[in-house]
Structures are given as C-alpha cells and as structure tokens.
Amino acid sequence: MHAFRSHTCGELRKSNVGETAKLSGWVHRKREHANALFIDLRDHYGISQVVVYPNEEFYETAKRCPSESVITVTGEVLARDAEAVNPELDTGEVELRAQTFLIESQADPLPLPVFGEQDYPEDIRLKHRYLDLRRDTLHKNIILRGKVINSLRRRMIDQGFTEFQTPILTASSPEGARDFLVPSRLNPGKFYALPQAPQQFKQLLMVAGFDRYFQIAPCFRDEDARADRSPGEFYQLDVEMSFVTQEDVFQAIEPVMAGVFEEFADGREVETPFPRIPYKESMEKYGSDKPDLRIPFELTDVSEFFLDESKTGFGIFAKITNSGGKVIAIPAPDATDSQSRKFFDSLDKWAKKEMQAPGLGYARLREEGGAVVSQDPALKNFEPELLKALLEKMGLKAGDGVFFSAGKKAAAYKLAGAARNKVAKELDLIPEGVFKFCWVVDYPMYEWDEDNKTIDFSHNPFSMPQAPEGKSAMDVLLEADTDEKKLDILAYQYDIVCNGVELSSGAIRNHKADVMYKAFEIAGYGPEVVEDKFAGMINAFKFGAPPHGGIAPGVDRIVMLLAGTETIRDVILFPMNGNAQDLMMNAPAEVDQSALKELNIKTVAPIPKD
Question: Taking a C-beta distance cutoff of 8 angstroms, is the pair 425, 330 a contact?
C-alpha cells in the first residue's frame, strides 16, 4: 500500500465497503460522542468521515489532535447506518474505522478558522492566504478558475488559434495606466517596463505572418484596486487575427465566451446571440458603456419638458436645460407603492455622498381624480397636459416613482447611470440566474480632455478610424479640421459586457503607418513621439502589415461572474490588498543597499503628495 493513501478523501463509496483503505488529509473538524470520536478528514478532492473508538491505543492522541493538522489513517471501510448517511457528501454512505493513526504535521492554533468559513478581517485572510484557500468556497473558486482557463484554451485551439508567449520585460509605453518599471543592471539609468498588455507584440506577430494568435497573458498595471480590478497583476485571454473585419472577430469570440459561460453556468441562463449596442445609444439608455441589461428599465432624456418654468414651476431644472444641460429620468417601478419617503431621500443622500453630485430630484406618483399627479417639488406644479406627456414618454403610472439627474450632459448621464444600477438593486429588480451579454460598438476615436483643454484618444490609440463607403480612414482624419469633427470620428473599437461588468476591449487595428502618424497628430503627439514610444510597431508597418484586429477578455472577471462573488480577490490565488501589498510575502519591501548599488539606484525620502 502507498505510504500516504490508497484513496483520496473524496473517493470512497459504498462499493468499497469491506476494503482496507489509507487516507491522508487535514483534520477538518472533530465530534466526540460518548462511544466514538468522529473526524472529518479533508483533502483537495473531498471529505471522508473517520471514526476512532476508545479502545484504540491512539484514541487520546486523535482526540487531542488540533484542527488542520495533517494525518494519515488506515482502516476498514464501513457502511453507515441509514440514519447516519450524509447526502451532502459524495462519501456520505461510508466511513473509515481507524486502525492506525499517524500525525504527519501538527497544526498550531489557527489565526482564522477553516471550518464554517466565518467572515474574517481581510488583512488576516490575506496574511494567511494558504489557510484561507483551504476554505471550501474559495478552494472551489480557484478550481473553477483552472477549469475556465482550460476551457478557453481548448476552444481557441479548436478554432485554429495558436498559443504564443510574448515578452514580460519590455519598453514603457503610454497605454493609459502607470507602468511597473524594472531597472536594468547592464544598462545603468535605464528601465524595462512590465507589459500593461501584449498589445504591440501581438500586432507584430500579425506583421510577422502568424494568422491567429492567443495567449493567457499576464498583464501588469500600477492601478488602484476596485471590487472588479486587482492592483498590479491580472490575466486576460489575449487574441489577435489577421485579414479580419470587426464582424469576423465577433464571430470568432462570441462562441468562445458563450460556450465557457454555458459550460460553467450551473443552471443559469446564458442569452445568445449578444446584442450590439452603439456607444452613443448605451450612454443615452443606460448612462454607461457597461450596461447591465438585466435591469428592466432604461433612462429617458426629459430635458425638453423642463424648459419653460411657467409650465413646470421648477426653476432649478429650467435654468439647467436653458443653459444647455440635461435632465435625465430614472424610473423606479412601483416604488411609491412599495417604499416610504425614506427610500427616496436615501437615494438623494447617496448621490451627494457617494457620487459627489448635487443630488437626485425625485417624484412619487399617485392617482387623484383619474389623473396621475405628484406632490413632490420636481413635478408638483406641472401643467396637467405637460405632466401627462412626460409620464407617457417615460412609461410611468400611478404607484411608480422617478428620479431626476440634472446638470451638464456628461455629469448628468454619469449620475443617472449609477442611479439606475442603485435603484434596481435597492428595489430587488435585478434577476439572478442569468448572464446577459452585449457588444458595445462604435466608440468615438477621440474625447475632450477637460483638464488640459485638448483632444486625446478615448479608448485605444492603435484603432482604425471608421470611414464611410467610398472614403479611406486617412480621408476621414484629413477632413476633421475642427474639434467638433474630430470628436465625431468613430473607431472600430468594441467591448464585451456581461451583467454590467466589462469583460474585454478590442479593436480593428490601424495597420497603416501614415494613418497612425495622422491619428496621433490629432491627439497632440508628433511623429517623434510615435517613433520613440512605438518604434517597433511603426517601423514594422512600413514593411507590409495585414489588416488585423483582436480582443482581450479578462480571465479574472470571467471567473468572478461565474463564481458569483462580489470581489475579484476571491478568484485569485494570492491577491494583494487594496494598497497593492502582499501581506503574506511582505511585498513590496526594502532591499539591501548592495543590490541598489549594483543597479545604480539611490532611494530618496517619499515626496509629499499635493
């Protein structure tokens, strides 16, 4: 018999009754009865019940053995009595009667419990992540992650893609986030950067003549943590294809994404095909380019109804609309009937505190004399016919509520989009058990940078501008001789969104050197910047580059959605905390001065922040 086990702790079944088996694992929990000690023994594969009787010489040793100690037990497999069968365990029909008992490794008192998975402070969980990973839910999440990656890889290979590995040490480039820099010992004063994404390398693979590339790629960005973003490191399914249109990318990737979610949906519904929503429409209907399509209502621009203060009696909104601002309505279905005024006031306070906004106007709708009216300030003094038209446009009835976000266009829609999500969550209107995807398409190539009063790239600087039939991308760029025309240029850029979470960004690439120079010129970058920051790619394009495009779905976010967890840290083996610290490995940390000297680096005291 093997030194440690003949079976795993998830393997024994009724068919093994009468056999001698050896199990090794962790003491999950113990239960002492008058005539026996029961030990739940756990390993990677499951749990088996071990019974130790008082007549065994090792009974006292087993009784004193601390939880989470590692033991090896040999004994006879017995059938449990009918009333003792545990249907929640795969091994629940049998138990192992211990005939030998050996402690392989005795555990010290635990800094956090494994059995029961009680809520515990995150700093303790991260410092002792190896214990946290023993917990059933987190352990299953990590197993799920491995299965999802295997599924993604298999599906890509089945579609004719080839996996390549791109460099980790590379050059710094302005791709929207801060780089992690690595000093070069052999080149004093110079630094490598860890790749924010394999963007340039995968495009260079297309120029090199490889046709369909993918990689489960590590990416590094010095960003602040969020619930759906891990600071420092993340993984994506990086994809690039040659001689493709935007539609070709969609046809290749949508089955992969839908297939993975269907494979691990566990009874949840995956809606296909994915609808395509233009960016402008997404912003107007949902206030976001990450729309949660599970929410059963949309936003409505009602600015026109508030223009004339004499007909509305509400001067605040009249002033905003007459100065070019917007009033966006957010429905709250049945909220007047189901909620108290406290609910409406709490949303207004949320807007002020969490969104740093002036607030949310609101109105509760009731029926009086056969008409729908409101006694709240926003709608109280509306002319009856105007109010009727307003409610018809929004599709509202007596018993509903409505919130209003007002201000400059971008700010009004931003608040309205967040309020849509908040209202739906508070009213429990977001159905569980369904994954609703969409493609968000037709992103603007450029956006206005209000801080610097300049035009800059809005999404991906390597994207191909869209051109109408009969014109080229260069024609479109050359004809954009005003800021307004520049901001109207659309790009072949697209995102996949699922349940309000952005899973990936992609684009058909700009593969022409002259078009790239011009595109960067519009954003305020001269040819010297392009040649300095993107030398490898711009030079390659001068020697024949195929039309190409790609996408990069985020692996961490895919698993987060499938696992049904609120935070991305629950699907990552060894995550950092919100301050980008690894509490378990004590990183980042100071290094020996001799190492810094070898790298020609001196440290200085932290520079105070403004």
Answer: no
Q: Are 356 and 418 in contact (CB under 8 A)?
A: no
Instruction: Say how far apart CA 317 and CA 301 lie, in whole Å.
Output: 13
Task: Give 551-596 pLDDT, tens digit per residue.
Answer: 999 999 999 999 999 899 999 999 999 999 999 999 999 999 999 9
Distance, in Å, from the CA atom of 110 to the CA atom of 29, rounded to the nearest integer, reads: 13
> Considering only CA atoms, which of 259, 253, 423 is closest in space to residue 331?
423
Assess contact for 21 and 4: CB atoms under 8 A: no
Tokens of 84: 């003792």
Residue 438, CA distances (Å) to 158, 499, 555 in order? 24, 9, 17
Q: Is residue 575 a contact partner of residue 125, using CB atoms and an 8 Å limit?
A: no
Residue given tokens 């010095």 in the structure block: 222
Alpha-carbon span 138 to 565, nearest angstrom: 10
C-alpha 134/C-alpha 68 separation (Å) is 9
Question: Collapsing DSSP states into helix, strand and coil, what is residue 50?
Answer: strand
> What DSSP designation does 16 have?
G
Of 331, 306, 299, nearest to 320 by C-alpha is 306
Q: Report the distance separating Cα 175 and Cα 196, nearest Å.
A: 7
Q: Tell me 522's DSSP state.
A: H
Q: What is the pLDDT of residues 325-357, one digit of tens each?
A: 999 999 999 999 999 999 999 999 999 999 999
Which tokens go with 351? 């807007």
How many whole angstroms from its chain centre is CA 359?
A: 28
Peptide bond into 468 cis (omega under 30): no
Which residues make beta-bridge pairs with 331? 402
**Residue 207, helix vs strand vs coil:** helix
First to last CA, the chain: 68
φ, ψ of residue 154 in degrees (nearest 5): -65, -45
Residue 296 and residue 427 in contact, taking contact as beta carbons nearer than 8 Å: no
Residue keyed to tokens 């791709």:
175
Hey, how many other C-beta atoms are within 10 angstroms of the C-beta on 283? 21
Classify 432 in phi/psi space as left (phi over 0), alpha (psi -120 to 50) or beta.
beta
In order, the DSSP letters of 407-435 are ESHHHHHHHHHHHHHHHHHHTT-S-SSEE
Bond prior to 113 in cis (omega within 30° of 0): no
Q: Residue 327: what are its φ and ψ, rounded to 5°?
A: -120, 115
Rounded Cα distance, 441 and 443, in Å: 6
The 10s digit of each residue's pLDDT in 47-93 is 999 999 999 999 999 999 999 999 999 999 999 999 999 999 999 99
DSSP code for 161:
-
For residue 175, the model assigns a pLDDT of: 60
Q: Which of 455, 464, 458 has the alpha carbon at shortest distance from 443?
A: 458
pLDDT at 532: 86
CB distance 173 to 200 below 8 Å = yes
Plot region of 240 (φ>0 → left; ψ -120 to 50 → alpha; else → beta): beta
| HEC assignment per residue over 535-550 | HHHHHHHCCCCCCEEE
Share of the chain above pLDDT 90, in %: 90
The type of residue at 401 is: G
Instruction: Determine how β-strand 548-551 pairs with β-strand 232-242.
Output: antiparallel
The pTM (predicted TM-score) of the whole model is 0.93
Of 579, 515, 524, which Cα lies nearest the Cα of 547?
Answer: 515
CA distance 94 to 91: 6
Distance CA 107, CA 28 (A): 12
**Backbone phi, then psi, for 24, in 5-degree steps?**
-130, 145
